[in-house]
């Protein structure tokens, strides 16, 4: 398989999907809830996932596809070529703010990340990587991340981290917030991962993410030296939900060791 050809195919498909989303959502948006009132999905999330599946199956019928909206197959192993796709990451932003939502996908062969994409649909900004060849923000190569002291770090977390919760000791998180330079909360995991990869954030932490939220991002992370793991410091599992941190390599261990106390 020529990976650069697959990359061209993926980019073309992502740009086309982005155009369709931008054109459709102002006049044809139906919003539904899934597991609860705050868990949204729209007709466009589903249609976009289906669009990707049809495109991939037409060119690569043997590839497996894991997508958030379940329009693909039930993927239980990462053996062979596998696409992991979130057609819209940040659906609440999509519905409410009409911006700050991403298409994100990763392409893996036997569990090894080959291609990763995070596309800001409204800005038409693409973060992507090809394993071993590097990472890019549109046409500009992304540099390896430079060390940053924790005191100067800006970290993506949301308010649940500093209020009593079931996942971590929130008092330690308050300490972290007091130590660093600032926090941000954007409402799209893929966007926050893209920001860490490009040095606009120095870390992003989440209590629970799914494979499609992080699949593409983990491939790009490797090319710039960002470290992605669960909160135990273990490698990300791309078949089940887990805790998640991605950080500049100079502060990844420090955050996990000194501030994250899992319950
Ligand atoms: C969600 C977003 C959000 C994160 C949630 C994800 P979705 O993805 O990435 O920022 O906090 O955990 O589920 O549902 O909008 O694709
Ligand atoms: Ca969702
Ligand atoms: Ca998502
Ligand atoms: Ca989604």
TrEMBL record:
The keyword RNA-binding does not apply. PANTHER family: INOSITOL MONOPHOSPHATASE, INOSITOL-1-MONOPHOSPHATASE-RELATED. The keyword Nucleus does not apply. The lineage of its organism: Bacteria, Bacillati, Bacillota, Bacilli, Bacillales. Keywords: Hydrolase, Magnesium, Metal-binding. This is Inositol monophosphatase family protein. InterPro entries: Inositol_monoP_metal-BS, Inositol_monophosphatase-like. PROSITE patterns: IMP_1. CDD domains: IMPase_like.
